[in-house]
Every structure is written in C-alpha cells, then in structure tokens.
Predict the structure.
Amino acid sequence: DQFAVLWQQAGETVEPDEDKSDVTMRIVETANALLASMAEPIELSAQQAPVLLTVSIGIALYPGDAGDASALLHAAEDAMRSAKAERGNQMRFFDRRYAQNAINWFETEAALRLALEMDELFLLFQPQVDAATGRVVAAESLIRWRHGGEVVPPARFIHVVEATDLAEPVSRWVLNTACRQARQWLDRQHPLRVAVNIFSDHVTSGHLLDDVRQALAATGLPANLLELEVVESSLLKNPDLAAQTLREIKRLGVGLALDDFGTGYSSFGYLKHYPFDVLKIDQLFARNVTRDPEDAAIVRSTIALAHNLGMRVLAEGVETEPQLRFMARYGCDQIQGYLTSRPLDPDVVETLVMERRDLRPAAIGLDRPLHTLLIVEDEPIEAEMLSMLLADAGYAAECVTDFDTALEVMGRKRIDLIISDYYLGPITGVEVLERLRRLFPEVPRIMLS
Ligand code: C2E
Ligand code: MG
Ligand code: MG
C-alpha cells in the first residue's frame, strides 16, 4: 500500500515553472522513500524464507533527457539498467554516458555471443589466503573479456550475460575452464582449490549438478579442489530447489561458499538449511570495520556465528593492514583482497603456491594461536594435498619424507601435532611414531592408513 501511494506521487506531473532543484529534490525524496519501502523482507509464509526484493530506479526528466513519452521511458530504463548493473538497490538519473551503454546493449549481447566462440573470455585468479599463515589456500576465478583492444571487467558486461540466455553457456565455460586450470596446477604438483562464481539462474536451472559432474569428469579434477560461490539472491528465487541442488553438489565433495554475505537478507536462521562450508563477508564490511563500530560488531558476531554453524569465514576486499589485523584478531579464517593479492594470471598464482609465500605484509601482529604440524609422508603430492586441507583449519604444515628430517624439524621447531603415513619405504609409520613418541612424548600423533 505504501508503495502504491509513493508510486502515485512519483507519477505526479511537475509544474513547468517549478524550480529545477526543488524538482530534483522531490524526485530524490520519492525515490528514496520507494527504496526504503521495499527494503523490508516480506514474509510469505512461516515455512518459507522471507523474500527480499531489490529495487533499481532509473530517472529521466522531460524535456532535458528526451522529447517524447517513448524516448523518456527509454531514457528512464537506461538509467534503471545502470542502477541495476551496479548491484541494484539504488537510483540513477539518466546520463548520456549510460545512454551510450544502453545503445551498446544489443551490440554487447551480439559481441558476447561471438566472444565465447572467439576465445575472448579468460579467467584471472585471485588468491584466497590463510589469515594466520599468509599462504595461498585457494584461488577465485574471475572472468575477463578481451574485447576491442581492452580488457573489460565483469561490471561492464555481466548484467548482459545475466539477462540473456548466455548465462548458462558462460557459466558452464567458466566452470570447465576453472576446473581445467585447477587440474593443471595439480598435475604440476601444486594442488590448489579453485572457487568458481555461479550465476543465480544457473543455480536453479536444474542443470548445475550435471554441469558440475561433467566438469569434474572431463578434467579429472578431484571434487575437493572445486568450490562454488553463490550469492544469496540465487537462493531466494527457489529456495527448495536451490537447497536440494546444493546438497547434491556437496555430496559430490565439492565445496560451497556463500558470496557477498551481509548485503542481502543474511539470516542465519535460514542459512542453516543450506550446506555452506564458507561464508564470504562482503567487501563493504572490510572497508568499514576499522571506522564504523557497528559494522565491526556485525563482523565479529558474524564470524562467531558462522564458526558455531561449522562454517569457515573469508573476508573479501581486504585492502589495508588494519583491516587484515581486525579480521585475523576476530578469528576470520581467510582473506581475499588487494592487500594480499590482485587477481592474477594462473602461472603467477602457481609461483606463489610453489614458493609457499606469505602474502601478508610483514608486520602483522597475530592473536590467533597458530598450530604447526609435522607431516611425514614420502609422496610429496599427498603431503601437499593434506597440508592444503589442514591449512583451512589454521594449521601450518611442515612436510618431510623420512625419519631423519622429521627429527631435524622436531629439534628446530615447536610442533603441535605429528601426522605420519603408514607406508614410508624403508620403515613404517608405526616405527616413526614410536621413535618420535620416545623423544617427544607430549606431542600427539596420528597415523594415516
Ligand atoms: P565477487 O565474486 O564478489 O568477486 C570479488 C570482486 O572483488 C572481484 O571483482 C575482485 O577483483 C574484486 N576485489 C578483490 N579484492 C578487492 C579489493 O581489495 N578491493 C576492491 N575494491 N575490489 C576487490 P571482479 O573480478 O570485477 O568481479 C566482480 C563480480 O563479477 C564478482 O564479484 C562476481 O559477482 C562477478 N563475476 C566475476 N567473474 C565471474 C564469473 O566467472 N561468473 C559469474 N557468474 N560471476 C562472475
Ligand atoms: Mg565471488
Ligand atoms: Mg564477493
């Protein structure tokens, strides 16, 4: 009802002699009121998750922006599209530059169709870094478009993809390409999990499960080296189908991350119905934690709650040391942002993994205790896989292949836990652990069989 009243007001005509800035003011007020009236979640029924709508408002003025009704509507629609392209939930006035964009819409769509065939799309990979060790634990694939001599970022074309039947083919292309890359890292002895963004429509298309299965089968990538990132809004459209699809994907062993957490409805109450492994706190919060006490409080509670629900927490968009320090202090598990690394070419990411580089700036004071474990394993690739998995739990691993080196490390470092493989060539894991027990009885030991 409130919306209807506001809508009517928005449609009121403006007197020709009214002061222009007054008119603008009235429009902004009305648009703001419209946004506010739609901001509340809508309860459809007690069993269903509340529905959250986002509103994008485009504003065009007669006679400055257009000379007749149809052109005026077009101008408003162009403005609306650019409001939407920037995430929605905002208003935009018509602007010639956006008009340019809008004219290009159809060209863009046509060009994108070709882009897939012409190999113009490619992926960059942004390292996700363990907050306690600074080591790369995964990489998020981010799409780019090499077009007309420049590299076009997703903000400028993804809305076209999403609004057309290109969404699924592009999503599938990303999935396959990212899996192939992760497989290549694995083949070169640098296993790294890849996180892939999935379009909303793909989540509830009914095809995602098959597409994931196929991408894994075609590339031979182990499922645990793949993680899907979905945004909250893709769950809201069809919560039951989304939950079922995600559960089946999880059953394959693929990881699931909820992207941009904190910008939508963000209710932990219904999140428990979805099998997410990772909660990605939206960039907005990293930007604000060091200057807005309320956002800081939200982040602290979010981390604690997510941990209690068995999820890991990753902070996106970390750009400064104070932001990193805040996130690390309150137990945030992983960091992704320009501070640790920009999105990179795959071979550069591989080098970072290979060099086991700590990507944090040197002077980070850490409050979170870091556990160090020793892995005795004669297959380097197995050791690498294990240490990568354990890095998620905050363990920094030292990997050795034989007893003598194990002994050397034990003497040099504080080790909190020893894990040994059973088959070690000349001696067995039983003997290794038995000898280490006599020397370091206080250190717990686990044997893998
Ligand atoms: P996202 O999934 O939340 O990805 C993170 C975005 O934040 C990336 O922008 C990344 O480059 C940027 N970023 C990372 N660290 C920082 C930082 O410290 N500061 C700032 N200001 N930005 C940072 P990008 O690559 O332009 O992608 C934007 C969005 O486009 C992504 O947001 C995602 O929603 C979408 N997207 C990108 N690639 C794909 C894709 O392959 N498939 C789908 N479906 N969506 C994609
Ligand atoms: Mg993402
Ligand atoms: Mg994000």
